[in-house]
Write a structure and sequence with these properties.
Structural class of chain A: mainly alpha
Strand order of the largest sheet of chain A: 1-4
Shape of chain B: globular
Structural class of chain B: alpha/beta
Order of helices and strands of chain A: HHHHHHEEEHHHHEHHHH
Number of domains of chain A: 1
Radius of gyration of chain B: 19 Å
Number of domains of chain B: 2
Largest sheet of chain A: 2 strands, antiparallel
Number of helices of chain B: 10
CATH superfamily of the largest domain in chain B: P-loop containing nucleotide triphosphate hydrolases
CATH class of the largest domain in chain B: Alpha Beta
Distance between the termini of chain A: 35 Å
CATH topology of the largest domain in chain B: Rossmann fold
CATH architecture of the largest domain in chain B: 3-Layer(aba) Sandwich
Number of strands of chain A: 4
Oligomer: heterodimer
Helix content of chain B: 25-40%
Order of helices and strands of chain B: EEEHEEHEHHHHEHEHEEHH
Number of helices of chain A: 14
Largest interface: A-B, 26 and 33 residues
Helix content of chain A: 55-70%
Radius of gyration of chain A: 20 Å
Number of strands of chain B: 10
Strand order of the largest sheet of chain B: 6-7-8-3-9-10
Chain lengths: ~325, ~260
């Protein structure tokens, strides 16, 4: 996430994405609008993961936990306590930030792989809890009938208005992330990602900045979780399954850690591409994961990753496969 | 000399790692506007001293005080906030940040604008950011890296990284600087340029602890020299008397005799 002036390609891609997003409701199918809404909601979480991992170097798997706090928080507060959906969204986000503080203090002394393992356990626990705590979450049946959001008397219960809302939120979150990344706060995160020792020697309060990024990422993930259940009017454990966390990481790694448009492109890649090749039926997964593998092999730091480390495909293949003109 | 820094005093400090005594009963003081040289063979405990003062390590016993604060109880970040900057023996740039950003990162503790100012781009934050960017540029000019401002720190040559490290420490506007072998690997013109920069900092009232292997460099530059061997102080005083001390010549300079 650096200045646009230095990354003209990313700027061009962002302009194309915005143009495409404006065009889709006019010419696109209902499925396209639906899928792109889901893409926006995931992209929001991937941007938060980019702050955590791409910027501050904290490999936390706990983002589904905070999505679950947002999702179940909104579901419970609106259906049981009959609160306004916007108020529920905000209260859930406050809850997520408080939980992030508790997690932060409890786990944040852990670094690197230990932090990843502990937060991975938290993600597993979140899914189990959502399944098991039927008194609260209604178990595998989930909570349905979540009332829709309203803006100025307009109820957002149709696909198009939610499409606009979710991409609007994604845009706000992206701008927020950019402002933070390009400030002294973002620089402190990048410093501690390189080396906590050097960061501390410069007077950067390392535990405080780690906690700050955890809390900000938690709030963003919680808001996305709330919007998701408002969109589908349903909250259930499968939304917070462990494979969702892995998908979030894949989205970031495909799009590019530390990049601006990477999280959006990555989310789009993992949601849209499988649908585009759904005609392949039982070969769909094979083709998709082959494609994924090629992207990661050719661009190890992601499509828009900070490092320009493109590896030509021909260097990855055995010589005898290549046509004579392409051999090494 | 403008407004010299208060003294940083190290009294009777010992550091043990298990059974190994890395530093044994060392006392020295770093005075404002003076350069205190710390020399000794490899393993003498010089870098350990820097780690002890900067808070990366805690002494087993002894006192370290600066401006009324007991540094033994403080974390590295708090010690840096008091105005004690350090450099690292292996030049340690923040890779992935530009040269300029490395220097601006050194100013972190002087930023006053909070997260709300950043998110809403309030005027105070923008003023601060542009003032500090200008100050970083000036520092880069002072150490001769202005041309490389936009380069990634990881692409600099070894010698330039040393100067970046100095600029980043200067950006903290410290009162005390702990310099761990700043001249290591520099060629003759570079180390002369470094000496010029350090003299300039001394004249501004900054107190420095200069750890180095380069004996002529240290004796030429320092106002005071402490010689360590195997964790102990074997000589201390003004450069001339330390240089003449037979114990020092035997323990440390013996091998360097011809070279000096």
């Amino acid at each position: 996430m650096v200045d646009f002036a230095r990354r003209p390609v990313e700027m061009a891609v962002l302009v194309l994405i915005v143009a495409g997003l404006i065009a889709v409701p006019f010419g696109g199918s209902r499925l396209a609008v639906y899928s792109l809404t889901i893409t926006a909601l995931y992209a929001i979480v991937v941007i938060s993961l980019n702050l955590l991992l791409g910027l501050a170097g904290q490999a936390s798997f706990a983002q589904t936990t905070f999505m679950a706090i947002g999702g179940y928080g909104s579901a419970l507060l609106t259906t049981r306590l009959r609160l306004d959906p916007w108020l529920a969204l905000m209260l859930a986000a406050v809850g997520a930030s408080l939980f992030a503080c508790i997690i932060g203090v409890a786990l944040w002394r852990l670094r690197g792989h230990y932090l990843s393992m502990a937060t991975f356990a938290l993600a597993l626990g979140t899914y189990s809890f959502a399944n098991a705590a039927a008194w609260l979450t209604n178990g595998t049946i989930g909570i349905s009938g979540i009332p829709p959001l309203e803006i100025g008397g307009v109820t957002l219960d149709d696909a198009l208005s939610f499409y606009i809302l979710s991409w609007g939120c994604c845009g706000i979150v992206l701008i927020l992330a950019l402002l933070l990344a390009n400030s002294h706060i973002g620089r402190a995160w990048r410093a501690l990602a390189t080396s906590p020792e050097i960061a501390a020697s410069l007077g950067i309060d390392v535990p405080r900045y780690r906690l700050l990024v955890l809390v900000i990422a938690a709030v963003i993930a919680s808001v996305s979780g709330s919007l998701y259940v408002e969109f589908t009017s349903f909250a259930g454990p499968d939304l917070y399954d462990i494979n969702i966390v892995i998908t979030l990481f894949l989205m970031l790694f495909v799009g590019g850690r530390g990049s601006t448009v990477g999280p959006i492109v990555g989310a789009g890649f993992l949601i849209i591409v499988p649908q585009m090749i759904s005609g392949l039926e039982r070969y769909q997964n094979l083709v998709f994961f082959t494609l994924l593998l090629v992207v990661i092999l050719v661009r190890p730091s992601g499509l828009f990753g900070a490092a320009d480390d493109t590896i030509p495909l021909r260097t990855l293949l055995p010589n005898w496969i290549l046509l004579p003109g392409f051999r090494r | 000399m403008t407004n010299p820094a208060p003294d940083l005093s190290v009294a009777d400090v010992t550091k043990r790692f298990g059974g190994l005594v890395a530093v044994s009963n060392v006392s020295l003081s770093i005075r404002g506007g003076r350069i205190h040289g710390l020399i000794g063979p490899n393993g003498a405990g010089k870098s350990t001293m820097i780690s002890l003062i900067s808070g990366a390590l805690r002494p087993t016993s002894g006192q370290i005080t600066f401006a009324g604060a007991d540094l033994r109880r403080l974390h590295p970040a708090s010690i840096a906030q008091l105005g004690v900057a350090r450099t690292f023996q292996q030049a340690a740039p923040l890779l992935g940040l530009s040269v300029m950003e490395n220097v601006t990162a050194g100013m972190h503790l002087h930023y006053r604008s909070g997260i709300a100012s950043v998110v809403f781009r309030l005027p105070n934050m923008r003023r601060e950011a542009s003032a500090f960017a200008a100050a970083s540029k000036q520092l880069l000019e002072r150490v001769g890296l202005a041309d490389a401002a936009e380069a990634q720190a990881g692409t600099l040559t070894f010698g330039k990284l040393r100067f970046l490290e100095i600029a980043r420490a200067m950006a903290m506007r410290p009162r005390i600087m702990l310099l761990d072998e700043p001249a290591a690997g520099l060629n003759q013109p570079e180390s002369e340029r470094l000496a010029g920069i350090l003299r300039g900092l001394r004249d501004e009232g900054i107190g420095m602890l200069l750890v180095d292997h380069d004996v002529p460099f240290v004796f030429d530059l320092c106002d005071e020299v402490t010689v360590m061997d195997s964790g102990r102080v074997i000589a201390a005083g003004d450069p001339d008397s330390v240089y003449a001390d037979p114990v020092v010549r035997e323990a440390y300079l013996g091998s360097a005799n011809e070279a000096v």
